[in-house]
Every structure is written in structure tokens, then in C-alpha cells.
Amino acid sequence: MSGIDRAREILAAADRVSVLTGAGISAESGIPTFRGAGGLWRNFRPEELATPEAFARDPELVWEWYVWRRGRIGEAQPNAGHRAIAELERRAPVFTLITQNVDGLHDRAGSRNIRKVHGDIWISRCSRCAYQRRDTATVFTGVPVCPECSAPLRPGVVWFGESLPRAVWDDAERAVHGSQVLLIAGTSAQVYPAAGLIDLARSAGSSTIEVNLDGTAYSGAVTVSLRGLCGELLPQIVA
Ligand code: APR
């Protein structure tokens, strides 16, 4: 039996499904991945801008980068990979999508039960108090200020060195622990939480299916590892 057939069979037989996605699933929509080519803006690597230190040093620069990214994301469309995952949710009685992506393309493809473990680029939140709002501005007009406490607003994403939102992470762990299968798509699985959730699924005895362009540290450990494009493979294994 081919890997694709095996993955399809595992997914069709499961009624509790979790999915973990990373930047690779949005690559075919034209959004650069973090560790691949095209991830640079004005020669900065994401690791140089997506940190609390960078924001403290130069909030204008960091905001300018995020507003530029919002512009690119706003012009992008969800692809066949995002749509296949939305279709999987419509079929599975119990379903959770855990994404490391902040771009919102899963929402736009029709996914509903989503845990955004790295936040959402379309949220701006206060760097001091609990204020937050949806923010669709794609033109940089300066650092936005909190209407409640006047501190600078910041993008509603998790930066390098920051911890993940507790409740979101707890939900993600609970979902993976309670699922019969974890489908992992488009993530290098190099950083927490990806790695931790794959280990959790394996120790819970769940099936694990990986769909990724390149091999990862988990390719040898998962039940089925499929090498290729999310936009091509995901529709095939959900079909
Ligand atoms: N289809 C499938 N896989 C793809 C595709 C594609 N079209 N394009 C790229 N990939 C794969 C790459 O081979 C790579 O293994 O997707 C993976 C993307 O890995 P990363 O760039 O490391 O992205 P991700 O795993 O989401 O990074 C996790 O790290 O930088 C932080 O917070 C950031 O959320 C991000 C996190």
C-alpha cells in the first residue's frame, strides 16, 4: 500500500483528529517560510525583528515589518492545502487544528476550531494592559498607541523568547492527547511546540502522518511520512 493510501485510510477511520501546521502550508500561497528562501525583509532575518528586544529598541522598524507582512498576507489566497484541512474538519466528529501560522489563511479557507499557538498577525494588543483589537491596516502610519493606557500597541503574535499563550497551549495538548491521529503539515518541527506535540501524540499511541517538502527530525519516527507539497498531497489524503 502506498503512503498516500495508508494516510487516507488512517484519516478515514479516525473520528478524533488533530492537525498541526506550520509555514510550509502557506508557502504555496506566496507567504515566505521562516527558514526558507524569501523570508528576509530589508536583509533582516525574522529572528532579528520578531523579539521583545527588537521591539523595545525600535518599535517603528518592527511595526513597519509587520504592516508590510500584513499587506502581503492580505493579498494572498488560501490554497488547496488549507482547503483540504477545512474539509477534514467538516468530516471528523472531533477536530482541532493547531497552527503555528499567524496569517489567518486557515480561517479564510473555512477552518473553524483553530488554536493559534503563535498568535494572529491581524490582532494588535497593548504591550502593557489587556487591551486588544482586530487591525487590518496594511499601511504603516507610526506605532499605534493603546486607547486605554497610552502604552504602545504590539502585534498579537508570540515572539522568539516569549512563552506561548497558556490556555491555547493547554487546549492544543488536550486535543492531541485525545486524538487518534495527528496530521503534521508544512512544519520543520524544529521549534517548540511542534516537536512537543508530535512526541505527545506518539507517547499517547496515536497515529502520526507527516506531509512536508523536506525530511525533518521526525520523518523516521512518524507512522507515515509523505514528501511533497501540501497543496498536492493534502487534497489526496483527504479525498
Ligand atoms: N509544502 C509542504 N512543505 C513545505 C512547503 C510546501 N509547499 N514549503 C515549505 N515546506 C516545508 C519546508 O521544507 C520546511 O520543513 O515547510 C517547513 C517550514 O518550516 P519553517 O520555515 O521552519 O516553519 P515552521 O515550522 O512553521 O516554523 C515554526 O518558528 O520561526 C518560528 O514562529 C515561527 O511559527 C514559526 C515557527
Structural features:
239 residues; alpha/beta; Rossmann fold; SIR2/SIRT2 'Small Domain'; 3-stranded antiparallel β-sheet; 10 helices; 9 strands; 38% helix; 19% strand; globular; binds adenosine-5-diphosphoribose
Report on the structure:
The chain is α/β, with parallel strands linked by helices and 239 residues long. The chain has helices at residues 3-13, 24-27, 46-49, 52-57, 59-75, 80-91, 105-109, 166-177, 194-203, 230-238; strands at residues 16-21, 94-99, 114-116, 119-126, 132-134, 153-157, 181-185, 207-212, 224-227. The protein folds into 2 domains: 3-31 and 78-118 and 163-238, Rossmann fold; 32-75 and 124-157, SIR2/SIRT2 'Small Domain'. 38% of the residues lie in helices and 19% in strands. β2, α7 and β3 form a beta-alpha-beta unit. α1 packs across α10 (230-238) and α6 (80-91) runs parallel beside α10 (230-238). The model has no long low-confidence stretch (mean pLDDT 95). The protein binds adenosine-5-diphosphoribose. Adenosine-5-diphosphoribose is lined by residues 22-24, 27-28, 33-36, 46, 100, 118, 186-188, 190-191, 194, 212-214, 216, 229-230.
